[in-house]
Structure to design on (114 residues):
């Protein structure tokens, strides 16, 4: 679990640095429709992720190959969803490029560090 915490903290800092470097300091807000889709999508992903995590943890254990693939799939789904929301509702801000870079980095880190 320490490795996952390290990966999450690293991805947050990389996302922040890339957002400042690629997009700039001004952060644009999502329109109301985008905010609603974003919130409901994240709630659904979080609930499904928690349930699947608990099932895998009890069924095969924390240090199994299934847990590694769960984290890879979870990173793909959550950051991929964020990339889609950024692309659909903030296309001109290029925020989705930052999310896609973080997605690739997250997959590589989970694959090689877990």
């Amino acid at each position: 679990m320490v490795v996952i915490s390290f990966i999450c903290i690293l991805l947050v800092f990389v996302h922040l640095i890339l957002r400042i470097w690629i997009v700039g300091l001004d952060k644009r807000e999502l329109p109301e429709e985008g905010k609603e889709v974003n919130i409901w999508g994240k709630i659904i992903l979080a609930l499904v992720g928690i349930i699947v995590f608990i099932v895998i943890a009890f069924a095969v254990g924390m240090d199994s190959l299934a847990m590694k693939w769960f984290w890879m799939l979870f990173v793909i789904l959550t950051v991929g969803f964020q990339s889609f929301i950024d692309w659909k509702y903030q296309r001109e801000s290029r925020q989705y490029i930052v999310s896609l870079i973080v997605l690739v980095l997250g997959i590589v880190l989970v694959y090689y560090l877990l």
The chain has a mean pLDDT of 90.
